[in-house]
Amino acid sequence: MAQPRYFIKTYGCQMNERDSEIMAGQLDQMGYVSSATDREADLIVINTCAVRGSAEEHALGYIGQLRQLKDERPEVTLAVAGCMAQEPGTIAWLTRYAPQVDLVFGTHNLHQLPRLLEQAQASDEMVVDVWKTAGEVVEHLPSHRKDGVKAFVNIIYGCDKFCTYCIVPFTRGKERSREMEPIIQEVRALAAEGYQDVTVLGQNVNSYGHDLEPARDLAELLAELEKVDGVRWLRYTTSHPRDFSQKLIDTIAASEKITHHVHLPVQAGSNPILKRMNRKYTKESYLDLIDRVKEKIPDASLTTDVIVGFPGETEEDFEQTLDLVRRVRYDAAFTFIYSPREKTPAARWEGRDPVPNPVKKDRLNRLMELQYQISWEANQALLGKSELVLVEGVSKKNDRVWACRTHSNKVVLIDREPGVNLLDQFVPVRFTGAKTFYLTGARRGEPLSPPVSRRRLELPML
Length: 462
Description:
This protein has about 450 residues and is α/β, with parallel strands linked by helices. It has 13 helices and 19 strands. The protein folds into three domains: about 120 residues, Rossmann fold (3-Layer(aba) Sandwich); about 230 residues, Alpha-Beta Horseshoe (pyruvate-formate lyase- activating enzyme), CATH 3.80.30.20; about 60 residues, CATH 2.40.50.140. The protein starts with a strand and ends in a 19-residue tail after the last strand.
C-alpha cells in the first residue's frame, strides 16, 4: 500500500515556517511522505498568517481554489492552521463558505496534529479545535527541516507588547521562553548535522528569558550559542526597539558569529503616532539607540518596518517619518499601508479617523522613493570590497547566477560556472556591481565546504 502524501502551504513569517517544519516532522512519524504539489497530496495543510490583510486574502483565495480539488478527490483531507485559525471571524467564514475544509486548528495545539487528523478523518463534519490560550512550551517535537546549512530555532513564543495595530498577542498568546539548555542542545545537534547558519526566532526575540527563573536574556543566550562548534553565523529575529539593550549591542560587537544585520522596526517617526501605536519609545530614544548601534557596530546593516496611513496620521506626522528615515539611512525598509486587524484598538479607530486611501498610497510611494535612493547609495558604497557570502540557491530571475547572502543579510548575485556546484557553500567574493536591492560579485577563492554534506538532489530556485 502506497504511503499517504502531505503538502503544507505556508504563509507569513519565519515562525510560521518553523511551525510547518514541526507539523511535517509529526506527519513523517505518522508514515506520511512529503508531496511536491497539492494535486498529488492526500493531506493539504494551509498554515496561515494574520498579520496583514493581504496575507489573509491570499490564504482565503487558496482555500477557495481547493474546493475544486476536493470535489474531484473527496478523500483528500484539508486542514487550516496557524494565526488566522485563532480568529473567530476566520472560523465563521470557513464554516459558511469553505465546507471543503475538514480540520481547523490554531497555533497553540499544533503539537496535537496526529490526534486532530485522526479525529477529522473519522468525522463527517468540519472539526474545529482552537485553544484560546497557550499552554506550556512543548519540547522535543519532531521536525522535518530543509536540507542545507540554514536552520530556524524557536527561543520564545508569543508577545506581551500589545501594539494597538497588531493581532499577534491574540493569535500567539503571552510570551513564553524556552529554557536555555534545550536551545543549546538543539543548536549543537544542528551543527553536528551540518547546519552552519542558525537563526533564533521569536515574535519579540529580545524579550527572551525575562519570564524564566532565574531570568536570562538574549545576549546571554547568543554568547552561549557562539561557543557551539560548527556554527558559522548566528542570526536573530524579530527585535523590538524597546528591548534592544546595550548589553546586546556589546555582545554583537564583540562576537565573531552573530551577524551584523540589525533589524529594528520603527513603524513611525512621529511621537504622537508612536504613542497611539503603544510602541513605548519616542523618536528621540529610537535615534539614540541607532546611534549606539552605529558606534559599536560601524558596519551594521540596518533595516526596519514602517507603517503609513495609521489612523489619525497627519501630513506632519508622515514628514516626521521621512525625517527619521533620512537620519538613520537604512540599508532597506519593509514598508506597508496600515491594515486593520480584528480585535485591535486601531481597527476601531480606522472607522472614526481614517486616512483616505489615495493619501495612504501617495505616502507609501514617497517613502519608498526615498528609501530606494538610500538603499542604492548604501550598496554603491560597498563596490570593490570583499566579503564571505553563503550561496543559497539559483536566482529565480536568472538561472545563470547564484543568489547569495552576506553576513549583513545583503543579497549578492554571482555567475554560475559550468560543472561547479556552490550550493550551501561559503564563498569569498568581491563586489563588482550595486543595484537598489542587490549586489553583484566575483568569486575570489575556493568555497569553504560545510563539515557535513547533505546536498539536495535538485537546485532550489530562490
